[in-house]
Design goal:
Immunoglobulin-like, four-stranded mixed beta sheet, 28% helix, binds copper (II) ion
Length: 151
């Protein structure tokens, strides 16, 4: 085993460790120490028992139709983490309807009217680089597309 205590013993510095701990507890006080221990326990439970599904969602906001180009997404590259819940929000700043489709991940947003926004939540379960685009006829062809990276 390679626990810290054994390492200290081997170096002959074990006597310093209890002193440091007592000082630390005295400064913290029992209330704060309890809070810290509770936090550590909660994190341990969340990570150990529930896994990545409990991770805080990553929110990404994209705009469509922002001047000077009606037919583009900003940003045109989005990076998400594998298995971490994601929320994509599309704000339509343009003059016509737009949407957003990630075909490879089967994520499709409803059409968004000018001046409106919509969101879609999903969990990226595949790593890789995927195309997203607007499915309104003609929009993708003139550049309304982007790249989603899941890593
Ligand atoms: Cu469009």
């Amino acid at each position: 085993m390679t626990l810290c205590g054994e390492t200290h013993d081997a170096n002959g510095k074990a006597a310093h460790v209890p002193e440091a701990q007592e000082t630390w507890q005295g400064q913290m006080g029992p209330g704060l120490l309890g809070a810290v221990l509770g936090f550590v326990l909660a994190v341990t439970l969340a990570v150990g028992l529930c896994g990545p599904a409990l991770a805080r969602p990553k929110s990404v906001e994209l705009t469509a139709g922002s001047p000077p180009t009606e037919f583009a997404f900003t940003p045109h590259e989005v990076v998400l983490s594998f298995q971490r819940p994601a929320v994509l929000t599309l704000r339509n700043h343009g003059r016509v309807v737009h949407d957003l489709h990630i075909a490879a991940l089967r994520v499709k947003m409803s059409p968004v009217a000018p001046g409106r926004s919509a969101s879609v939540a999903f969990i990226p379960t595949v790593r890789g680089t995927f195309e997203f685009f607007c499915t309104i006829p003609g929009h993708k062809e003139v550049g309304m597309k982007g790249v989603l990276v899941v890593r």
